[in-house]
């Protein structure tokens, strides 16, 4: 489906550029920046494909590699101007996680994995590139600390199966679920929503 | 075997709660805490299954997911009281590594892997959930620094093959090997035993 | 091929000892040091084999395990004297990445993966043991920051396919490509060459 590939490329661009920005802050060299961009962009899908034992997408389709090389060059050259693209990048990233969640979920469903596991697989596809990026940059992954990000993916996954249960057609399903991911993520950022953080009450008492 | 599943669930609970506690210390949000609990509980088994190319247990049996969700909620709600459960948690964890070592080892033996590799697979099953937990929380894994933990697993593995060589029946074998893991770990904690740490003698000289 | 196995063992020794040295600096215990040595030595090949869905080399050939145990013991015992072996270790490591790049690349080519992906697989084989070592020691991987290391592997990979395109025989190809990796790496260290690091121009402006 051409439209899906187009969205996939937008997501890859956004993920790659978020990798470039994180790696530049850590003062990595050119190769390090490219590798972080690469792993941020394909890491979630790679972990998904290892878990479900599917062929790994970027190893069989050079489009990903070329898009990531292009995005890295673009981001490195225009690094001083990227602030002007911030909203576009955020939008691409949000579209990316919506799409990756649905694609991952559908791959899991084809393998007849149970619904909650399929939601987990979709969420892993969308989120683990960013987790790997943060681990390689020696940070606690940002999605574990202060963003409604994976939560948006899980919300979309639940809507997908709820609609399915109600008998909605699969393709229509997928579009709505992806949109739910995108809308939840947008609302969370616009209204600065966060999940509660549960501190340990009496750390002294341990 | 029902008894084995029961022990497996105890281990999963202990591993999940150790993940919750580590994640809470890092001030993660609710989703982050759940993910760390999840990865701590299933990470070792997942890496084992990837290495031996077996189906990944938690993807085909929802029990793990539900037990981890339940443990996370329990730990989050009673976080101020968990200190009273410390001994039970330690005991569950110790039973968990004994069991996981033996299960992992037996899976490797079925694939006719050599004895030292089977011991490695068992040890990975038991220990790498905790390693992943510490990496995601941006710590050097605790088992590399100051605990007789993996060493207990390796000791149990060696006993397993020694008994096997002496002609002891496989199931009896397994029970004894698991018990060795548990006893070595208990003794190490009770008597505060540690492996020697080998410092570099002349760091200045490098 | 006996000669290849011999080079492979030299590379394994060098990688294992680099793991031992990093782990000792972090004051790990004996088990932690061994595990870091093990993962540094086999990590790149393991990730390669997971990605290309091949059997994992160290699980089916005990030579790796024994070489790593021997290297760890040697390094731990002679830790104060390792400074005298520094050049040999550097040379082993350099031979190791040359060899691992070519072996990884050839495995990918046999699976008919595209040329740039095969180069990536070769580079991953050579470099990711060191990346995993640094992650487990809670450092930003050194190859992302300040060394021409992966770049040498990529250069060798490009030469391999260029010669292939020009009709050079495959085995002759492999020797030249491996030599290119080694020479680029040696020159980079001798002349202290580095890739440019691209700092963000206006970090304040973000």
Automatic annotation (TrEMBL), chains A, B, C:
Transmembrane segments: 6-24, 31-51, 57-78, 90-109, 115-136, 148-166, 172-191
Ranges for domain Glycine transporter: 6-79, 91-163
Membrane topology, record value: Multi-pass membrane protein
Major location category of this protein: membrane
Superkingdom of origin: Bacteria
Cell compartment(s), UniProt: Cell membrane
Alphabetically ordered keywords of this record: Cell membrane, Membrane, Transmembrane, Transmembrane helix
Key word Transmembrane present: yes
InterPro entries for this protein: Gly_transporter
Family listed: Belongs to the UPF0126 family.
PANTHER family associated with the record: INNER MEMBRANE PROTEIN, UPF0126 INNER MEMBRANE PROTEIN YADS-RELATED
Protein name per its UniProtKB record: Trimeric intracellular cation channel family protein
Organism expressing this protein natively: Mesonia sediminis
């Amino acid at each position: 489906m051409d439209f899906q590939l187009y969205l996939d490329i937008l997501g890859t661009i956004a993920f790659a550029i978020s990798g470039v920005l994180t790696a530049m802050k850590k003062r990595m060299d050119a190769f390090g920046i490219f590798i972080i961009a690469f792993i941020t962009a394909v890491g979630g899908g790679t972990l998904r494909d290892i878990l479900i034992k599917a062929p790994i997408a970027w190893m069989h389709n050079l489009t990903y590699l070329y898009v990531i090389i292009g995005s890295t060059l673009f981001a490195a050259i225009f690094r001083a101007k990227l602030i002007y693209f911030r909203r576009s990048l955020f939008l691409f990233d949000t579209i990316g996680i919506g799409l990756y969640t649905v694609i991952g979920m559908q791959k899991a469903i084809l393998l007849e994995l149970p619904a909650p596991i399929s939601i987990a697989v979709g969420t892993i596809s969308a989120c683990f590139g960013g987790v790997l990026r943060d681990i390689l940059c020696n940070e606690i992954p940002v999605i574990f600390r202060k963003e409604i990000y994976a939560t948006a993916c899980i919300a979309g996954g639940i809507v997908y199966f709820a609609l399915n249960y109600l008998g909605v057609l699969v393709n229509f399903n997928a579009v709505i679920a992806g949109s739910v991911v995108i809308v939840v993520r947008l609302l969370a950022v616009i209204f600065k929503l966060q999940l509660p953080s549960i501190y340990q009450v009496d750390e002294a008492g341990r």
